[in-house]
Structure formats: C-alpha cells, structure tokens
C-alpha cells in the first residue's frame, strides 16, 4: 500500500475537513469539469479518467459527495484480474441509466457489471430490505445484498459470499447512522465499529485491490457556516479519519508491516467511537 491517499476535489467539501492533512495526499482538482454532478456525460468521464491517469496511483481515495460515486467505475476498470466489489452502501446503485451517454451515481454498479468482464460479483452491505427490487434480472445472479437488518457478526457471513481472491471496497457513508455521519441522502443504521469489523474481516481473508470513500455533505457558501454545515463537516471528518486509520491498520497488519505507532493511533481512535 502506498502511503499516499487521493483527495478528489469535485465539490470543495474537503476544504472544510482536516483528516488528510498529516498524510501524504494527492489533491486532484476536478471541479472545473462540467456535467459531472449526479449524472456524468461520457466526454466528461473521459476527461476525469485522463486526469486521474496523470497522477500517482493510490490505494485509498476520497471521492466527495455520493453524487460522484460513479467514479468508482473508473477505479474498477483498472483491475486486470478477476475480482469482486464489496459495496458498503445504503443504496444498490443498480438503476438503469437514463441514457447510454450517461453514467450516474445510481447506475454505476449496473454498468460495471455490464462492461467490466473482470468484475465477477457484487456484495452490497447495508442496503434496505427493498434493495432487491432495484436489481435487474440480467445481473441478479451476480449480486448479493446483506441488508442493514442482518447481523454481521462472523467473518464467514461476509467473505462466504465472495468467490474471488481479490476484492475492491467502496464505502458510501450514507450507510452509517446519522450519529456517525451526515449526508444528503437517506441513511442506514451502521455504526463505525460495525464498519470496522466488516473491513477487518475482508482484509484478513482477501486481497484488497483498493478502497474508496464518498458520502460527504455537499457544501457551498450558503450552508458551510450554518449549524448543520458545521455539524456535517465535523462528523464526516471524524468518520473519514476513522476509516483512514482502520484501512491503514488492517492493510499493514495483514501484510505484517504494522508499526506500534500506527496500531496505537487506530486503537486510540476506536476507544473514542
């Protein structure tokens, strides 16, 4: 794992957070590319892909608002071996796109299964019970949903549904309860501690090809100094710090590269949650 993380600047939300400032991070400005919010045109997606290709590769990426979750499609397209996607999300993101010329935050999982032959299976953790209603029959055999109501207590509960040795993990913080994070979408009930257990189980048994995180509360000059805006920035910064530390902890410990300082930092943060 490269120590460098990627901060994708679509919507300026990370300017109100500090979890990354003591890390080696690559700030990738994408805010000048039009037609990217919620729905992304193919020309815009090509421009984003070209800009990302120019930057150093990273294992952990922070995307911004869930409106840009479709960027995960680009990260998945780089994987050149059979793999599974573990999507930790309150939504399935398997709705048909309104146009073949568009990819959206609600369609990217479907389009990934349709266009990326190395993606063999998708495990969605934390979606609501009606999630299967949004899974088209054409991909139903490749998708497993573990709803927010299912207990996730054993490692086999999760990894038993993953057939490949390699996985990619994508986290949308709308899977978390409002006590843990604030997003602009309806949210689930997962706690950060439960999320940590899920990540730990995956890292212990699978080769993780990469991780990305989205689900920020959109910020603009009219709301960043409001009570809700400040609360969202504070909670999401704390959640992002927790996820960052846990990903580093589990990666290094699994690869026998864990330092005492890293272990202590992650352990201290866990005690605060």
Automatic annotation (TrEMBL):
GO biological process, one term: putrescine biosynthetic process from arginine, via agmatine
Highest rank taxon of the organism: Bacteria
Database matches in InterPro entries: Ureohydrolase, Ureohydrolase_dom_sf
GO MF terms held by the record: agmatinase activity; metal ion binding
PROSITE patterns with a match to the protein in the record: ARGINASE_2 (PS51409)
Family (UniProt): Belongs to the arginase family.
The name this protein goes by in its record: Arginase
Organism of origin: Compostibacillus humi
